[in-house]
Amino acid sequence: MKIAVCIKQVPASSEIETDQNTGVLIRDRGPTRINPYDLSAIEAALQLKEAYNGSVTSFTMGPKSAEAVIAYSFSMGADDGVLLSDARFAGADVYATAYTLAQGICVSDHYDLILCGSQTTDGDTGQVGPALAEQLGIPHIYGVTAVDSINETQILLTQQLGNKNMQLKAAMPCLLVIHPDAFRPRLPSLKLKLMAAKKEVKKLSMQDMQEKNILKYGLKGSPTQVERVFLPERTTYRQVLTGDGDTLALEIYNCVKQGRLI
Amino acid sequence: MRIEKLIKSFERSYDEYLEDESKMKGTAASISFPETKEEVSSIIQSLSVSRIPITVQGGKTGICGGAVPNTGHIMNLRNMSNIIQYQEKNGSHYVTVQPGITIEELNKQLYKRNLFWPPEPTETSATVGGVIATKAQGIHKCLYGETNDYIEEISYVDHHGQIFTLKRGERKFNRNQCMLPNGNVITLDTNTMGIKENHDLIDIFIGSEGMFGVIVEATLEVLNRPKEIWGIVFFFQLASDIYHFIENMKNTDHQVGTASLAAIEYMDKTALKHVHELKQVATKLKDLPDVSGETVGIVYLEIFGDLEADIEKIAEKLMELAVESVSDPDTAWAVSGEIEIEKTRALRHAVPESINVAVERARLKDNRITKLGTDIAFKEKSFEELVNCYQTDADEAALDIVVFGHISDNHLHVNIVPKSYEDYCKGRRLIEKWSAQAAANRCKIFTEHGVGKLKKELYQRITSKAILNELKHLKKQMDPIGIWNPGNMFDQ
Amino acid sequence: MKTAVVLNGCSPSLDQQIEEINGFLSSYLSSDFEIEVWILTHQKINKAELKGIIQTDYIGLVQTNTGYLPEDFLDALQRMFSIRKPELIVFGSSSYAKELSARLAYRLKGSSCIGVNSCRIKDGKFLVEKEVYSNHLTARFILKKVPCCISITKGFRTERDILECLPEFEVISSDAEKVYSWIKSYHSCQKENAAGLETASVVVAVGRGIGCKENIGSIAAFAESMNAKLGASRPVVMSAWTEMDKLIGASGTITAPSVCIALGISGAAAFAVGIEKSTWIVAVNKDEKAPIFKMADIGIIDDYNEVVQELTKLLSKK
């Protein structure tokens, strides 16, 4: 069984610096890491590989430095890794990212399962998985907490949606978005980590894709465009109040209510 | 601020300030939370008139009761937690801080400048003041050495409320004498104390558990952060394998280019059991995979270096040694980078933390129970002999012990987790026995946790009369009215 | 801008969906937006259930074959789109809604954004904002292609005006021919455990300042009355005033609620770690120098009890 996992490199710290004057995000500074939600997807892929004698290939789109997340997946146990890297992929939104990943996956091999993390810690809130499934024209199953069994054509899954658990059977190939709480990722193994440093990452650029129309990729292929990223205005105010409990309680109550917090 | 506002009379809502991680509980009549050294000074001036004793507190993470008051006033330094300034001199970096800053906050600020302070007591809510008072060293001692080397200057307030500054190298003992910044000359028999003839006065303060004054500022030497750091955890299923690995590792040179071993830590099966229990409720541990139940012990290593290739060479060598000692390198964990290493450090730190929780639970049944742990660097024995000794004694006394700690100088922390007060008493006797053995072998018995109140009796019993007399004499000279931290280390 | 609001009529939470969508619409949509409502369902919908819905001239009842299948819903939405041709399609905040929003946009070759907390039209462009980088930053996007499919972020609420007269439903029948071959069976059961301390959106944390074990009971009741989870500082847990699994801080749970109400907590470093990710912190403590006030958005120097009693009264009025 062949499994593809889509992963992403994200800034390591959530305290992101923005340019004081323009409010624009300073991206290329600071350490990076593998998106923590993707670790659960890799873990799920590795468990499936161990149970069903398969192989795991990790895919990421990004600059050359994004190889680091492929290396991380190697140190956990992924067999192969593909970096989709091309200046023309830059500025891609969810839609164009899903498109590029789909192209890269299609030219690489035929996969029985595609696994994604549920969201990333930087930009989106989990749209790449659904968009990728649409692009590949395969079932999309969100919030997967367990793979109960697999036979030649079918996969039996448990899915958690909101406060409901559901069991379903789907035909393969399909795309699974892995629930982050369900698969606690292993830590890298020393042996694999040492080997990962020497292992080759396959690189694909636009020239390697089936679709070579530049308008389909990157900023040009993106229906959404980031206008600005900025520090949110704090709607709350910091203050210490003294006085009697009654009036202060009312104060809290009003603040809480206005802030749609409770 | 007016003095009446600074010194608050003690009331129940301050109860949490009567305890620390030793689980001892004391009493106090008043409490203060000064924010500046001037406030400290005026509080002390006011208290010293009536000779009210003062117990100084930082993060209250100590395990020997040093911060537990037994009378008088509590001076809690939690509100003195600022960084005052950064300096660079001759290529070295210094940071001046208030004593109440936590290790976590200090590291966070230093991280932004690519710097770090080598003492790493793993308990990140400990304060710099507390680290200095106990001379805590933590897991990186094997690479960076003594904490003293990273303390360049301190400011302290004496019993009159006067503020003095003490710089390293500025005041040294000469013929057993040294002049204090206030002009008084103190005497100390360096020979009896087993210290260098030209011992630095600042080192008298470091590790003195607040007996001579309250530190209100410290200038720390900080280093450039290594560019690459790795953490590795090896798992063993037979005790003989782990001992074999440790001996082989100790006999191997691990320096490669820019890289060296920065931590070598041991955790036994019981330690892992306690961690597993804490893991059920602690978010910080949830990222850790479960450790196989067959594991009898683990060795945790950190490698620091500027080039990943150098670190990899050390890691490869360690892997070979592990294979020779039947530890599967496929299952060994290896993480790198500041973020990932937090996971393995959380594991290491969870050991004492989970034991503290277990002790607290035992204490609920009998409030005479406190923390019971050793801090002995037992260099005279091999690692295997040492662990076997501890275990045999514990088995004979039918006590549950946890063994973990620093492998490089056999500085293991043996903790006793009592099920009853009877266990607790047996445990105390066992620690006395081990301490006496260590003393007979001229080993260090109070290495980094301090003596405090919990180990005071033990300290007095195994410390030579001559040294005790010297210390009492020193205390008299530094604190003639006896207001500092009463009940710590020895009774007046 | 012609706008369709999508409701999942198969879900028992229809009421909440209406409430959050109303909250969003009333905050951000002006007269520039011409709103219609689509209800997707395979069940019968009672008009009374929709009483609180936003003012609209059109309600479409879109019949689906199943009550659960995203593929089925997507087909229904596609069919509906081809009839009604809205430029903006607004979904709720559930994971189901997010999936539909992202996938529908892809199918319709439009643009999508999920987790949206505001939107507006400026210079002919449709702009949305959402929180990114774990709520540390806000990003503003231009959605360039229609239809724009958005799913709103959690937390919108509104007081509802009950509409006396609703437009007649238009029923759009399902495509009964459609077979979803790859879904073999679907079966659902209610998940057992509700959200814990770690994922709670409101947390009430107590410290030693609450005085004694006996006071925990009334605070727990207060917490429950506002759907909050009770947590405690280490001294409280270690004195066995409450269970270990309530422990907040370095050696316990690290919480990240929208609101954290800290009662009688001094805020020592080991505890602070456990609540510093909260969006909004209210601290009540008698000690005005307690470090908790440094991290609180609102600090009250008073006895916790009075504040709790008063808040309880206010909440019960609600």
TrEMBL record, chain A:
Q: Which GO terms describe its molecular function?
A: electron transfer activity
Which SMART domains has this protein been placed in?
ETF
- Which InterPro entries does its entry note? ETF_a/b_N, ETF_b, ETF_beta_N, Rossmann-like_a/b/a_fold
- Which residue numbers delimit the Electron transfer flavoprotein alpha/beta-subunit N-terminal domain? 22-213
From which source organism is this entry? Answer: Geosporobacter ferrireducens
- The identity of this protein, by name, is Electron transfer flavoprotein small subunit
Q: Which Gene3D superfamilies match?
A: HUPs
One Pfam family per UniProt: ETF
TrEMBL record, chain B:
Q: Name one GO biological process term.
A: lactate catabolic process
Q: Which Pfam families match?
A: FAD-oxidase_C, FAD_binding_4
Specify the superkingdom. Bacteria
Cofactor requirement? FAD
Q: Which UniProt keywords apply?
A: FAD, Flavoprotein, Oxidoreductase, Transit peptide
Q: What is its EC number?
A: 1.1.2.4
Q: Which GO terms of the molecular function aspect are on file?
A: D-lactate dehydrogenase (cytochrome) activity; D-lactate dehydrogenase (NAD+) activity; FAD binding
Location of the FAD-binding PCMH-type domain? 24-225
* PROSITE patterns reported in the protein's UniProt record: FAD_PCMH (PS51387)
User: Which top EC class applies here?
Assistant: oxidoreductase
List each coiled-coil range.
none
- State the similarity comment: Belongs to the FAD-binding oxidoreductase/transferase type 4 family.
Descriptive protein name: D-lactate dehydrogenase (cytochrome)
Automatic annotation (TrEMBL), chain C:
List each copy of the Electron transfer flavoprotein alpha subunit C-terminal domain by range.
197-276
Question: Pfam families attached here?
Answer: ETF, ETF_alpha
**Source species, domain of life:** Bacteria
The record's section on InterPro entries has: DHS-like_NAD/FAD-binding_dom, ETF_a/b_N, ETF_a/FixB, ETF_asu_C, Rossmann-like_a/b/a_fold
Q: Does the keyword Lipid metabolism apply?
A: no
Record-annotated Electron transfer flavoprotein alpha/beta-subunit N-terminal domain positions: 67-155
Task: Mention one GO biological process in which this protein takes part, according to its record.
Answer: fatty acid beta-oxidation using acyl-CoA dehydrogenase
A Gene Ontology molecular function term of the record: flavin adenine dinucleotide binding
Gene3D superfamilies given in the database record = HUPs, TPP-binding domain
Family membership noted in the UniProt record: Belongs to the ETF alpha-subunit/FixB family.
Q: What is this protein called?
A: Electron transfer flavoprotein alpha/beta-subunit N-terminal domain-containing protein
Q: Which organism is it from?
A: Geosporobacter ferrireducens
